[in-house]
Design a protein that fits this description.
Blueprint: E1 6-9, H1 12-15, H2 17-21, H3 26-39, E2 53-56, H4 63-73, E3 78-81, H5 90-95, H6 98-107, E4 113-118, H7 123-134, E5 138-140, H8 151-156, H9 159-169, E6 181-184, H10 187-201, E7 204-212, E8 215-220, H11 229-240, H12 245-248, E9 251-255, E10 268-274, E11 280-290, E12 296-301, H13 308-327, E13 332-340, E14 346-350, H14 359-369, H15 373-376, E15 378-386, H16 395-401, E16 414-417, E17 427-434, H17 437-452
Parallel strand pairs: 1-2, 1-4, 2-3, 4-5
Antiparallel strand pairs: 6-9, 7-8, 7-9, 10-11, 10-13, 11-12, 12-15, 13-14, 15-17, 16-17
Length: about 450
């Protein structure tokens, strides 16, 4: 192997491992781990450097999918390793798998030097780094804070942490606003506070401290709960009682904000990367595709998704946030999520201090179109598109069905498939590139019609 080899660890579940491990429903617990494991093969699209890379994934990928990826991204020096057992804590799985550990140490080459990058800088990842160093490997972590600064990941990446940060920073950065809310502990108090807020504001949002892809978020809109306090409180309490994680972690209770879909779909977002030097690098802004239940589906990227004024506010806020993260020692990817109110005001909802559900979209778009891709193509993505019920698709069959709309480098338009393993879950992940929004949506509709015709 080349001395330039980088190792990527697809450790998505480790980002919210305390949350996942507290899920009381055994089937839901297993589903969360499997769902994240199936998402792992998407990550190879997010890590396509010019040098060699070894991707440690939770699930195997087929040669056909691997070849498709390499043809789209125009890369060759990519390898994949998969631990024999997957528990959700992939870094621990690697440490227990001597075959994969040998692959990692071999990747260091004669100089015994390795660059290790994760989906998220988890405690498990830091332990893996520590063990490799104990084995004599020089490990570089350009997308991670040092171990003594790793607290920033869970703090700023939590609902309570970003709220404390916003309250502290409000005087310095007035645009860093959040919906009125508070943090409490225990479902009894949470139900009382939420019921009062719902009756007073005709809506309420309840969040666990660090959920995942919509799990751990409850949105109660006008008319969805009774206006009588005691009945309202009991209904909320009954809902919170269904999962033990509500009683295990801090609970954030916020005003419900009706969004303005004309501004980034109602949920604009901006993503950055903090270099090892501490420099904050802007990557892209987008509109998030969010379900009614608050679950993230994908992104819509183009310079026109928000006005110049909104763009400036988002980017300025994002830079301010990143500068504070950098001062605290954070290194790597982060984003800032917003909700656009009906009056056009922006409220920060959370910050993901890791790679995100849009990082791979950014990587593919910039690979195919260059750094100015936001002006050269209209990009849509979906991470959870449900395939027709009762139909099983292999990756080769899906390629065949969607051949009329697949991405062509000549036309620079079409669908890019970014997961094979999700097909087992009855879902598809894709990115669409079109010359403009109209074309991108036309391609998406044509794709859906092809799938429905099977």
């Amino acid at each position: 192997m080349s001395d330039e080899m980088t190792v990527y660890i697809a450790n998505m579940s480790e980002d919210v491992w305390p949350f996942i491990s507290s899920i009381s429903d055994k089937r839901m617990f297993a589903f969360e781990i499997e769902d994240n494991a199936h998402l792992g093969d998407r990550d190879i699209f997010a890590v396509a450097p010019n040098g060699g890379i070894l991707c440690v994934l939770p699930r195997l990928i087929s040669q056909e999918y691997f070849s498709y990826y390499k043809s789209i991204m125009n890369v060759n020096n990519v390898q994949v390793a998969v631990p024999l057992k997957h528990t959700g804590e992939i870094c621990e799985d690697v440490l227990r798998d001597e075959h994969v550990m040998k692959e990692l140490t071999t990747a260091g080459g004669d100089k015994k030097s390795l660059t290790l990058i994760p989906y998220t800088t988890s405690l498990q990842f830091l332990r893996l780094v520590r063990v490799l160093r104990e084995r004599g490997i020089t490990v570089h972590t350009p997308e991670s804070p040092e171990e003594e600064d790793a607290w920033v990941v869970n703090f700023f990446g939590s609902k309570s942490g970003i709220r404390q940060f916003a309250q502290k920073s409000g005087a310095v950065e007035p645009d860093l606003r959040m919906a009125d809310g508070m943090v409490c502990v225990g479902i009894d108090d949470a139900a009382r506070i939420a019921a009062n807020k719902y009756i007073a504001r005709d809506g309420v949002v309840i969040k666990t401290n660090k959920g995942h892809s919509g799990s751990g978020v409850l949105i109660f809109r006008p008319g969805e709960l009774p206006k009588q306090y005691s009945v309202c409180r009991e209904k909320i309490l009954a809902t919170l009682s269904k999962d033990i994680f509500w009683d295990r972690f801090p609970i954030v209770i916020e005003d419900y904000i009706a969004c303005n879909p004309g501004i980034g779909g109602g949920f604009p977002n901006v993503e950055f990367k903090i270099q090892k030097s501490g420099k904050v690098e802007f990557l892209y802004y987008c509109g998030m595709r969010i379900t009614r239940e608050g679950s993230f589906r994908g992104v819509e990227i183009h310079h026109s998704v928000v006005s110049d004024k909104i763009e400036a506010q988002m980017v300025d806020t994002g830079f301010f946030v990143g500068e504070q993260y950098a001062k605290a020692g954070y290194r790597g990817y982060y984003d800032v999520d917003f909700i656009a109110g009906r009056g056009g005001e922006l409220f920060v909802t959370e910050s993901n201090v890791r790679r995100t559900g849009g990082t791979h979209v950014y990587a593919v778009a910039s690979r195919l179109f260059g750094k100015e891709f936001m002006y050269l193509t209209y990009t849509l993505s979906c991470n959870t598109y449900p395939l027709p019920q009762g139909k099983m698709f292999t990756f080769s069959k899906l390629l065949d069905v969607l051949k009329p709309v697949l991405f062509e480098k000549k036309s620079r338009e079409g669908v890019v498939l970014v997961s094979e393993n999700m097909l087992e879950m009855g879902q598809m992940q894709y990115i669409i590139f079109g010359q403009n929004k109209k074309r991108a949506l036309e391609i998406e509709i044509a794709m859906e019609e092809l799938l429905a015709s099977i």
